[in-house]
Design a protein that fits this description.
CATH architecture of the largest domain: 2-Layer Sandwich
CATH superfamily of the largest domain: Reverse transcriptase/Diguanylate cyclase domain
Oligomer: single chain
Number of domains: 3
CATH class of the largest domain: Alpha Beta
Radius of gyration: 29 Å
CATH topology of the largest domain: Alpha-Beta Plaits
Structural class: alpha+beta
Helix content: 40-55%
């Protein structure tokens, strides 16, 4: 038999559950009755004044003339919805001396309250083992942003910042403690969960370090590649020196592993079967640039870099209904299909691609850009998007000769 407790989730989303069944208050997830329930649940310990409720629900909304009357009506509607949803008979919200509080006849289990309790107890706990247990509980309870669908509301944004800071501090302390205890498997699981919630907060570094300690080098390299590609594609941020150092270490360890030669051969064979120009991540493109620049110095090989920039002819920078992304993917296909297998390229951002063209003359670079342009225009039926092309020799990237030359700009 299920417990007769109203279980409330507010971290990572909002849901109510009673006797194992989900309670749905309103089809409109951002209605005033739902918001009222959320505020009451978030203040389950102390209760909340009617004045604070009015500020949170109506704020500076001048269209609501009688805010106190509107609040009373919202409380009335919420009571009806709770009863209709199957909760036991109750007033649900008791009002005494201007303070609104949940009726204690219906026991509550609210995740934010459990989370705060675990955080506070961990700070008071002196026993290391017990503190680790409490910190682990706090991190387990934190499933994501506080009421994420309502994050635009000022009271929610304020509480969300508070809970996020508490979670970050708890997790950091816990990871440091686990590192001292060499509990790397637990570090990996905690860091993986944190990276899923906050992918741009560098929790992947903890994942990679723990996997290296566990000698799971291929998994660590997979986390590294996924993380660096995401950071570059979404934020145009290249890997930090610390991450590049980890990548070098992982590569060395993988190459030393038993059976590595066979695995490397299989991966090289897969790449060898690819048609057209080779697409790679930006970090890989940078590595190739350094290799080819050294080859150019040694054997006199000519290498040119071409920058292709998408331009919306209607002058709009935003991506209308995914049209910019569609044009970008079309440009990628045209580059890959029209260039040689010995050429390679990368996506620099939403509107730009970089191409490396070894063993080519400057005159032939214009031929290349015209070939790409003709294919792109045909694929797009000549509508809305054009491409500008710039080219420079690798030699021109040296500090004393840094120049870019525009060779074929469509106006």
């Amino acid at each position: 038999m299920s417990e007769k407790i109203l279980k409330v989730k507010m971290l990572g989303g909002f849901s109510l559950q009673y006797e194992g069944k989900e309670i749905v208050l309103d089809r409109n997830a951002v209605s005033k009755t739902v918001q009222l329930m959320q505020i009451i649940m978030e203040n389950a310990r102390e209760g909340i004044s009617k004045g604070s409720l009015i500020d949170a629900l109506y704020g500076r909304d001048d269209e609501v003339e009688n805010k106190n009357g509107s609040l009373n009506n919202t409380i009335f509607r919420l009571r009806k919805q709770l009863k209709a949803a199957g909760l036991p008979e109750s007033r649900y919200i008791n009002i005494k001396n201007g303070i609104c509080k949940w009726d204690e006849k219906i026991p509550l289990e609210v995740d934010v309250e459990l989370f705060v309790n675990a955080v506070e107890k961990s700070r008071e706990e002196e026993r290391e083992e017990k503190r680790e247990e409490l910190l682990s509980l706090a991190c387990h309870l934190y499933k994501g942003e506080f009421l994420p669908t309502m994050i635009g509301e000022s009271w929610i944004a304020e509480r969300n910042t508070f809970y996020r800071e508490q979670y970050t501090a708890c997790l950091q302390e816990l990871l440091e403690q686990l590192k001292r205890e060499k509990k790397f498997e637990k570090i990996y699981r905690l860091a993986r969960s944190a990276a899923e919630i906050y992918p741009y907060d560098d929790w992947q570094t903890w994942q990679i370090d723990s996997l290296i300690e566990l000698r799971r080098f291929k998994e660590a390299m997979s986390v590294y590649e996924k993380s660096t590609n995401m950071m570059f594609e979404k934020m145009n941020v290249a890997p930090s020196p610390e991450m590049l150092e980890r990548a070098a270490l992982m590569g060395e360890k993988i190459s030393q592993a038993s059976g590595a030669i066979g695995d490397i051969k299989r991966r090289l064979d897969e790449l060898d079967g690819m048609e057209g120009a080779y697409f790679c991540s930006f970090p890989s493109f940078v590595d190739a640039y350094h290799v080819l620049s050294r080859m150019m110095e040694r054997v006199g090989m000519s290498v040119y870099i071409m920058l292709c920039t998408l331009r919306n002819t209607r002058g709009r920078a935003e991506d209308e209904n995914g049209r910019l992304e569609n044009a970008s993917q079309t440009l990628r296909r045209m580059i890959q299909e029209t260039l040689r297998r010995g050429d390679f390229f990368t996506r620099y951002n939403k509107t730009q691609y970089l191409i490396m063209l070894p063993e080519i003359t400057q005159e032939n670079c214009k031929v290349v850009s015209e070939r790409i342009d003709a294919s792109f225009r045909a694929a797009m039926n000549g509508k809305d998007f054009l491409v500008d092309y710039y080219v420079a020799s690798i030699a021109e990237f040296y500090p004393e000769e840094t120049k870019n030359r525009k060779i074929n700009s469509r106006k």
